[in-house]
Automatic annotation (TrEMBL):
PANTHER family: FLAGELLAR HOOK-BASAL BODY COMPLEX PROTEIN FLIE (PTHR34653:SF1), PTHR34653. One of its GO terms (molecular function) is structural molecule activity. Its main location: other. One of its GO terms (cellular component) is bacterial-type flagellum basal body. The gene is fliE1. One of its GO terms (biological process) is bacterial-type flagellum-dependent cell motility. Belongs to the FliE family. Residues 1-14 have a biased composition (Polar residues). It is found in: Bacterial flagellum basal body. This is Flagellar hook-basal body protein FliE. Pfam families: FliE.
Amino acid sequence: MDIRTSLATQSYSQARSAAAPEPAADSAEAMIGRAVGNFAETLAQGEQTARAAMTGNADPHALVQALASSQLAVETVATVRDKVVEAYQEILRMPV
């Protein structure tokens, strides 16, 4: 029986990579972080467009679009907050 070190090492590395767990697609923490970042970015863009419109550097169409986008973002965050509070209250109602 001829066992070479390189063959054993190669077989071990192939078996190890095949048995390695797949990385999670997205953790909840990463998704929440991206959502918060997108929300802040949307509000910042809306504020920037509003400032530009006040000084006459942006067209009214861009201002209306930025305001609608900001409003949608705020309503989405409020809805998510309400669902989280509702879920928390439901957990508190559970019998122990």
